[in-house]
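Incident log entry.

Two folding requests arrived from the same account within the same minute. Monitoring flagged them as a possible duplicate submission, but the sequences differ. Recording both here for audit purposes.

Request one:
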Amino acid sequence: MPWGEFKDTAAERRLFQRRTLVMLVFVMLAIGGLIVRMYQLQVVEHEVYTTLSDKNRVQVQSVPPPRGLVYDRNDTLLAENRPVFSVTLVPERVQGMDDTLAQLGSILEISDEDRERFERRLQEPRRPFQEIPLRYDLNEEEMARLAVHRHELPGVEVKAELVRFYPHSELTAHALGFVGRINRDELQRIDPVNYAGTNYIGKSGIERFYEEILHGEVGYQHVETNARGRTLRVLERENPVPGEDLQLHLDLRLQQRAHELLDGRRGAIIAIEPDTGGILALASVPGFDANKFVTGISVNDYRELSDSKDKPLFNRALRGQYPPGSTVKPMLAVAALDSEATTRDYTIWDPGHFRLNEGGRLWRDWKRTGHGWVDLKDAVAESCDVYFYEVAVEMGVDTMHSYLSRFGFGEDATLDVSGALSGLLPSRDWKRAVRNEPWYPGDSVNMGIGQGFMLATPLQLATATALIANRGRWVEPRLLKDIKGDRPVEEFLPAETHEPLSLKNPDDWEYVVDTMVEVMHGPKGTARSVGRGAPYKMAGKTGTAQVFSLAEDEEYDEEEIRERLRDHALFVGFAPADNPEIAVAVIVENGGSGSGTAAPVARALFDSWLLDYGQADGTLVSDVDEVAN
């Protein structure tokens, strides 16, 4: 048309309809895709995303079990758990560690030592989301100040936990040991599941030996948390199984008495019940406060303990290795009789010295003028060195080593005493291996009076003495008396491995016991003044061990010797002699005379056990003058 083209309405309508159809199909496909995806998320994968959602909201936390308690034989509590509030951080939830620590420092008093310990633990391997303590033992005011700022500190919590506490710490530290925080090495060997949430583990003593039954079994709880990781409520809980409570043979009264008797002196006391092998007292003085080690001892406190010349951390009762001196003579008397190196009637003349051969080296007796004619009973009662010099040469090292090893020397003969050393029982092979020298007769002479190479711990001396008290019946020393539950004690004690020490003539046991009674009650006994007035018979042996050697012609002048170079004072014994209830070993370092220093300590311990805490069941002395002059 000349005036222009008309609009094709029909064509435009068809185009619009086609476009509308395409868009409708596209929208329907998109809606269908959304519906399919929604179906997949809400129905098909419902459990997957429910679990993922719950992980953001619900978490599984481990619940550490309460550690088992420890009691003495009279049910006096020796180790308990007390609640302690501490501030902890979970590094994975902390937003800016340095800023958080700085803010905490403005709210609480945090020492440089606390900060250094925290940063050290932060670098050590640990379980994911494990809390790291920064400060222990918060008081109420500190907890209140922290609560005010709690919303500003994500990942920071005030946690209440049960921490080990020793009510009689210095008395029991060496006997019980202590717990401490789990370190890197321990983390590698413990069960990661059962120790989840547990921060402490036994480090020494009973706490370490019976860790398995004291720890218990871990529990779990499902908790609901907010976006900052703070717990809102507990949804479900499986309670932990508490550790078993232990009862020890240890008697706290006797333990305290032992510490009192050694107060101001360095030394150790072991007391054993011969019938059961139960350790009644295990005292090493000076001691230390084990509570300081539980949550982490300060550098200054540890330096003070470790640098002390009195060595309070050193367990003298178990790890102190000393020349046994004359306390080994009753054991050698048993060996000499049974090996027929001597007889009860054999006598020698003691001029105050001994020579292996004419013109050879001179070995002196402690009594410069000698003891004159002595038999075996006199030799033990008066502690005649010359008699035992001669008998030792007659037996030889092989015989002495054989018998003394059957008394428990040269080994750890205990069942559950953690950390005990084995001392040193020398032999031909040992000297050849260590010194590349043969065994000389002079070595046997020294060994005959418990000097030379031989070393023994107080626990070994008490064990050997208990064997004499039992007339050859072995009962290996132990601390555990009972488990306050359904589990039998034998399940956790190692099997005893020592056979009875049988003699050719069993009456020799009574004879040797009589020689030890003469020491305490005989007219010439070295400890007759200590035994005087006792309403019961006691058997014992005094000993004095040199700390350094004297030249052949040199005199011992105690006043001129520095205190720490003086002789050690020793004593072993049991009471009552006929029906023993207690056997003891006492050592007082640099105490000088065994009869003047160690024996009175043992007498006081006997009196406490038999007269103050109980009653002697053995033969009482009806007429004291008959056995004591």
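Request two (distinct sequence, not a duplicate):
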Amino acid sequence: MKLTKILNRVFLVLAVVAFVSCEDQLTELNVNPNGVDPETVQPNLMLATVISNTATSYCGFDCDVAGVMQYVQKSGWGSGLNKYDWVGERGWGYLYGNLRNDKHLYERSVEEGMEFQQGVAIVLRAFTYGFIADHWGDAPYTAALNGATGEQEDMFPVFDSQETIYRGIIEELKIASSLLSKSASAYIGIDPNADVMYGGDPEMWRKMSNSLRLRYYMRVSTKLPSFAQAGIEEIVSDPGTYPVFTSEEEDATMGYIGSSEADSWPNAIAFDASESNFNRVQLCAGFRDVLVDLNDPRLAVWFNKVRIPIKVSTAYTPEADIVEDGIRYLHPDSMDVKGWVVYNQETWPADIEDGKVLVDTNDYAGMPIASSTGDGSGWNLNPNVIQGGPNVHNSALADMYKEAKGDLLRQRLISYAEVCFIIAEAAQKGWSVGSQQEWYEKGVEASFNTWGTSDDAADYLDGTGVTYDGSLEQIMVQKWIANWTVAHESYCDWRRTGYPALTIGPIATRDAIPLRFMYGNNEKNRNNTNYLDAISNLVETDFTAQDGEDSSWSKFWLLQGTGNPY
């Protein structure tokens, strides 16, 4: 892929957004002769920007949701991630901004008769609206993005129900699949350099559209079981009409160019002299405990061992606390006097509430969820306490996450592994989609292939806790592990099924994990009537008293009446 050419196209499209036409003489004199007229812009000039903005808006591994799902914790500036402090408003302007660009891409593609670009625009539009519905609930959808017309209902769009949005994007993805059903040579105007995800391959985008349909059918399966069953069975039974991913090589991912901070992996140290972005994202004990219990080799791919392990020993009596040969030794008598106890995954919350100081002696040490404020820099007796700094006694991200780009440094939207686990869950429900065991094992194998541990997959599948047992929990735990760097999807699964079983940390903001984002102030202040209608559809829980209806602990339609996750 010619990355320089892609960058040029991305920068050109910024001019599309920046300029609008006007007939008065003053504006004519101020038109940039090097800009691009939005009314005539070539769709391929917009494609790379819309794809990249869609991908980078998705929640990866260091957003607040990644903390809730117990993948990571932060050593600084992370109260939302460390103890789910989700009591403030969260705007969606960046998402609707990209949807406006997406809409323009689609309209120009229709005008130019470019069906490939139309199909891609629809897939990306559906993906983004799904993300909005997943996080906030009801939202502007059918009446959104029409502000340029100037009508009252367009300036202040109504919020469609969450159900309407999910049904709508499923239908849109059907349309996209049809538009993308031809061979590449049958389309006009495909530029492989403009498609930074699939290089202009319509079959891959078609598979992505149908794989996303599986995701959203499963998303609504508790509320609309017959609808979801019919949709998933239709797709699985007719791969010729509705092809989906068939290998991890087809995953919908976007790599990074690595030439600047804007186009590099978010934690790249080349553009962060302090290395704070890398250092402050550290392993969470909840994720570590499961990976260690299952003897999962992916742990070593994603995280480093602690630089200085801690051991409890009397070997250096009477020394109470000493570092020898790269190991920190603590004397048990001294620990008793100081109230220090070794971390135990069964008792640690009670130990903290009893005033104990936890000491993690694992080679891969992790900070427990909601055991620290947003400044977790002192966790595990860190000898160099710096907010947002490193911790020699806690596992950092693997070194590859320091790099600006790399084969495994990709923004992941949906994967073959996810498709396998969706179908395995459908089989677990008794739907006609094939063997639950086969799809479950395919999902595990796909994840191992993705992360370069394929040689270990067979032994892993024979291991305690992993060998197929037919349970929903087993499917969801493995799907959670496979969705490392795709925290948003794990979060949606946990809300829907209650799996994996997650701990509520002792200093959590509330005694429950949040369920949604609160609406942003722009909606409250500028679209108040429709905002009030939307929050009236939320159902309060035992944890919303401080907030009222628009609370991160309120239930939207998807969770109402399900009993999940609480």
